[in-house]
Every structure is written in C-alpha cells, then in structure tokens.
Amino acid sequence: KRPVVHLPLKKIKEIMASDCVGKDTLVGLEGGEFLLHPEANQIMEWFCNNHPNFDLLSNCLQPENLIEAVKKYPPKRLYLSLDGNKETYKYMRGKDGYDSVLQVIEECKDLVPISAMFTLSPYNSFEDLDHVIQVCNKNNIDVRVGVYNDIEFFDTVEKAHEIDVSELKNEEQMTFGKVKNKPPKMLCKIW
Predict the structure, then answer these.
(1) Are 68 and 105 a contacting pair, CB within 8 Å?
(2) What is the pTM of this model?
(3) What are the b/e assignments for 150-178, b being 16+ CB within 10 Å?
(4) Which DSSP string do the residues of the chain spell out, in sequence order?
(5) Residue-wise pLDDT tens for the chain (191 aa)?
C-alpha cells in the first residue's frame, strides 16, 4: 500500500510477546520485499536469537543482500517468487529479476529449504508453470502454486474470477503510475 508503512521492531517484539504466540508459531517475514524494511537485519537477528521458527519471502531483486541475510540469519524456509520464464517475470513484475531468482536458488539451495512460489494468473500461462517446475526439478527445490485473486488489501485492478489464465499475458504492462492516473471510479468499488 502507499504510503509504505513499516512495522517497527519494537512493535514486532510486543506482538511476539503476546499470549497468542507460542514457540511453535511460524512467522513469515514478507511485505513486498522484506529486506527493504529499514530494520530488516535487526528483525532477522532478533528472530534468529529469540524465535527461530520464521520463514523469509522474497522477490530476489537484491540477490546479494538476500544471500547474505540467509547465510547470517537462516530462516526455516525461503520462499521465492517465480511466475514464469525470464520474459514473463519481467512482464509481470516490471523488473528484470529472473536471473536474480536463479542466482539466489543456486547459492542458497544447500543452506536452507527453498520453495518457488508460482501464482497462476491472467498474466502468465500453464507453459510458465511448466518452466518453473523444470527450474525447481533441476535445483531439487519444491514449487508452491497459488491462483491469482483480487484481494482488497492489494492494489489489484482486474477481477481474477472474470479473466482467464494467460488472457492478459500479451497486454500492455500495468504500472503504479498508469493506475494512479486513471479516474477514481476505475480504482475503487462504490458501495
């Protein structure tokens, strides 16, 4: 969401001290890209020392930082977003990060368990899923498949239940700037 709001380490410690959190509670560090959090290293260090039952989710856009963080503060599992081949990755995410994902897989697969997270959507295809499965088989990691859905919390525009898989794969790429400049009636529901 915009503006970006970071949950401070102090608040995380308060949450983790609550009665609803036990030693078996699995915590996911995510947020878009968790390593962009200004206190990311301190938070991961705290979890390693106080609650090592945590996972880390990443888009791998800063591969060196991610690899260093995994070595220093190993999560229970590393989840990496990979929604297709190089071309599809760039189309869906607006950045050329495919090779970064492969670099992180290669350098971390013997350090922690890794899962590639594939989201089947109107922007990719079953062929992209097959590609991701091949990458995972080659590297002996698992793949987790989700189905795109329009979640009110996120900045989704399209209605997932009204659009077929791969229907938008070759359409003009949507960016925040383009969406931001659309008339308000296209950005929100009227109740």
Answers:
(1) no
(2) 0.78
(3) eeeeeeeebeeeeeebbebbeeeebeeee
(4) --S--PPPHHHHHHHHTSTT--TT--EEE-SSSGGGSTTHHHHHHHHHHH---EEEEE--SSHHHHHHHHHHS--S-EEEE--SSHHHHHHHHSS--HHHHHHHHHHHTTTS-EEEEEEE-TTS-HHHHHHHHHHHHHHT-EEEEEE----TTTT--S-GGGS-TTTTTTSPPP-HHHHHTS-HHHHS---
(5) 568 888 999 999 999 999 999 999 999 999 778 999 999 999 999 999 999 999 999 999 899 999 999 999 999 999 999 999 999 999 888 889 999 999 999 999 999 999 999 998 888 999 999 999 999 999 999 999 998 765 554 444 555 556 666 566 666 655 545 544 554 433 333 32
